[in-house]
Amino acid sequence: MEQITSLVQIKGIRDGLLASFLDASWEDQCAALLAQIDERSAFFQGARLAMDVGSQVLKVNDLVDLRDRLSERNVVLWAVVSESPTTEKTSQLLGLATRISKPRPEEQRQFTNTITDETALFINKTLRSGTRVEYPGNVVVMGDINPGAEIVAEGNVIVWGRVRGMIHAGSKGNRSAFICALDLSANQLRIANEISATLKPQKDPKPEVASINSEGRLQAERWHTG
């Protein structure tokens, strides 16, 4: 199994995840991708996936079959980047994007001017109870974090919504990491090894950012999003 999954590399990009493949048959590449998703099914729940398939020549049935199998796993295939004109036309015929753009600085500043790398995982949905997301970088959620949901990130966590679950930023010990949300009513916040008390829901919530202050304590203060 480890040999199969090594055929695919998956990393975070602005619009979701990007899968890149080593040279192998299309069947083996598909098997490697699906095996890696099955191994970390909670991480991939609701993910938007783009693929760089290199020079693979793919027909409609190839991509439709994979798209259906991804959909069964709650993963959305939205883009296919290819050096093959045939594959590119097939992708366009199926309504898939064939270009992937990197984030521009002004787009990144919509959230915060501190996030500047390309390793952010973007989640365009609410995380419900029982969902756990782990990521070796920054995580941006366009939705709520419901009670019973968890995010564990080695970088920063930004939530364009209400947080009532658990968030752990800087999970590998990064004490300069931070957590931002429009409503920070979390069950628990953690940054590095610092843990907050339970935060009570606010009657008139304001955007807040939680970080470790100069005294080494986790604190939340007003987040100026403009």
Explain this structure to me?
- This protein has 226 residues and is α/β, with parallel strands linked by helices.
- It has 2 domains: 2-93, 2-Layer Sandwich (Transcription Regulator spoIIAA); 105-222, Pectate Lyase C-like.
- Helices cover 21% and strands 31% of the residues.
- The protein has 6 helices and 15 strands.
- The protein has helices at 2-5, 26-39, 41-44, 60-72, 85-93, 105-108, and strands at 8-13, 16-21, 48-52, 76-81, 121-123, 132-135, 139-141, 150-153, 157-163, 166-169, 179-184, 188-191, 194-195, 208-212, 218-222.
- The strands form 3 sheets. The protein has a 6-stranded mixed sheet, with no helix packed on it. The chain has a 5-stranded mixed sheet with strand order 6-8-10-12-13. Strands 1-2-3-4 form a 4-stranded mixed sheet.
- The longest helix has 14 residues, at 26-39.
- The protein is elongated and about 60 Å long.
- The termini are far apart.
- Mean pLDDT is 82; it is low at 102-118.
